[in-house]
């Protein structure tokens, strides 16, 4: 079983090879699966060809039990800098899995203004043993967040810390009245109790490949499907609102949940638009 330091060292070797545009020096399993933005690619294709720099943002975590390591960072491709997330799964010392999301805002219809990729001590600080949860409890809290978002009607299926914040594509989307979503000025739980995200019809293909018990992090992948049929609807406080998505649409996401004392304390997410109801190369993995 690989230690945290060994998993981080494997991540650094991968990043060095990526910046050198050469996957050759890395040790790969014969059945390694690598994807970029939910499409299976051979090592050396996609970002391997176009990356020119990696930014200083480095939010990493590891699962010694499953041999998984993941990173939120930024990558530059000549002119454009994008938020990115990379998950690596090892089998022994060899790479068996690489799942990458690059949020190329130049390709997105929904652009998040003025992203800031800054260190977050709350995500990096180890959780005292007295405040840790079991792996199963941590996954249940993260999955409960997704169940709360799905057909969001104001019911809460997880537990939040009062100070919980959410960062999406480098932008804080809670306690931030300057963000363009009307409920963005509210904390995590209050937004969801209003039922604002009722247009999130399905939160499917949920996967939780990495649990960092020491850091209190659950790392997840999945899809949010929007059927596009919901028009006007009423929040739980009686406010009439309109769905912002009136067409078939899907987000593909990587999301990290900080868990402490049985509650979600912070959320970090990267997501992109993909074809509606797109399947995943990871479905049969």
Task: State the secondary-structure class.
Answer: alpha+beta
What assembly state would you assign to the polypeptide chains in this entry? Answer: single chain
Radius of gyration: 19 Å
Strand content: 35-45%
Report, as a whole number of angstroms, the end-to-end distance: 21 Å
Can you walk through the features of this model?
By secondary structure, the chain is of the alpha+beta class. 16% of the residues lie in helices and 39% in strands. The strands form 3 sheets. Strands 1, 2, 3, 4, 5, 6 and 7 form a 7-stranded mixed sheet that branches. The chain has a 6-stranded mixed sheet with strand order 9-8-15-14-11-10, with helices on one face. The protein starts with a helix and ends in an 11-residue tail after the last strand. The mean pLDDT is 97.
What secondary-structure arrangement, pairings included, does this model have?
Layout: H1 4-19, E1 28-36, E2 39-40, H2 47-50, E3 53-54, E4 59-63, E5 68-77, E6 80-91, E7 94-103, H3 121-124, H4 135-149, E8 160-168, E9 171-172, H5 188-193, E10 202-212, E11 217-226, E12 232-234, E13 240-242, E14 249-260, E15 263-274
